[in-house]
Amino acid sequence: MNNAKAGIVEKIQHSAPINSVAELELVKAKSAIEQFIYSCSHTMRGPLKSIAGLVYLLKNSEESAEVDPKYYLQSIENTVAKLESVLNDLEQFLTNSSQGITTRSIDAKEFVSTVLQEFQDTIEEKKISAMITIKQSVPLYTDRNQFRIILSHLISNAIVYQNNKKEEKQMSISIKVNSSVCMVRIRDNGIGMRDEIQPNIFRLFYRGSERSAGAGVGLYITKELLAKMGGVISVRSKAGEGSCFSFSIPNLSAREIQHNE
Questions:
Q1: Which of 53, 87, 121 is the last residue of a domain?
Q2: Looking at the predicted structure, is the pLDDT value of residue 171 above 70?
Q3: pLDDT at 159 over 80
Q4: Does residue 46 share a domain with residue 116?
Q5: Same domain for 127 and 251
Q6: Strands 169-177 and 232-238
Q7: What is the pTM of this model?
Q8: Beta strands 140-143 and 232-238: pairing type?
Q9: What is the total count of domains within the chain?
Q10: 248 pairs with which residues across the strands?
Q11: Domain range holding 48?
Q12: Distance CA 175, CA 184 (A)
């Protein structure tokens, strides 16, 4: 354990006895903030150093005709995109703590189609076969924005962790909506996860793969949002075969809309 993380643990262990729920929440919040600050520093320093190094090489590329300057520019662009992804994750982490639940009616087929549009270019580029199955006989009442964030994180994972060596890359999204619950399953045939990784993937700032471009916040946010919405999530995965995330959220009644307006 490095000195920064050790300091966080030490502060918690040597704090005064916790006598109330409020004090416990305060300690948890303080720990999360300290971890957040440490993660910001650690996660952003790597890409920034990479950009600085690439700029240095680009400045001196005229002395070597063997390397095309476009290579360095492309590398800088890729690193900036990674840094932007990290910032987006951290912004969502902060926003999540203050968001309430605003209930609206959702047509699942139309909603999924809209979310998938954000990833369409990448899906086509990676030649991923996407299969969508929607069974909805009644309106789904839930928070549109938070439902979108959850779907986006899980769809993004299914795309990022595809197995590039496989000829057929697949992703399936299945949604069933009835009067009491909405059940969602997102499956891929990607690289999957080893057994020892799976218990940790919903932890804040946990990054279980070198492919992870973000700050290790996405799945944590997903689980926290589902907890706010009264939902649950589970995962089944096997290394080399793919992963399947399943979650459910309650289908809130129309009365919830009136209550939140």
A1: 87
A2: yes
A3: yes
A4: no
A5: yes
A6: unpaired
A7: 0.70
A8: unpaired
A9: 2
A10: 183, 232
A11: 3-87
A12: 5
